[in-house]
Fold this sequence. Notes:
It is a multi-pass membrane protein. One of its GO terms (biological process) is glycerophospholipid biosynthetic process. There is one protein chain. The protein is mainly α. It contains 6 helices and no strands. It has helices spanning 6-26, 30-54, 59-82, 88-112, 121-142, 148-184.
Amino acid sequence: MRREDIPNLISILRIFLTIPVVWLLLEQRFGWALVLFFIAGVSDGLDGYLAKRNGWESRLGGLLDPLADKVLLVSSFLSLALIGVVPVWLVLLVILRDLVIVTGALVYHYRIAELEAAPSMLSKINTTAQIILVLSVVLDRGLLALPQWLIVSLVWVVCLTTIASGLDYVWVWSRRAVRIGDRHD
């Protein structure tokens, strides 16, 4: 293993960290789940910091880092829906958005042009809202009762940002595909 591989290794470990997080959530051991979320958050910052600071950025790292985030978030959402603390419809909406984006990215990459993916600002806002919702629900169930209106508000913020970011991706990448298609005609 080379030093340059450390950020990718951290991302891979974060993917494996999903397994105990899911188990803890399903067992409703929310305090320990928060501890592992904290570790995942620190590792997310650490791998990015190391990659940027030392010039260890790679195409694999560019895929692994968001994949690790998405695996942890979607697994957490599914677990919280299974125990009835997050609406199933919201989880389905989050998964549908991700499927639309991944499908569109694959079609674009293989049918239009090489894809250099970068998250949009709306996507970053959506991811942040999702993280805040998961942490708030886990915190509410484990350590500190939060006002119900706050949790409900966060559910609707995630709903709206999920729809907005999904539509944004479809709009932006459809327009790019049309522009590239026009150049090839």
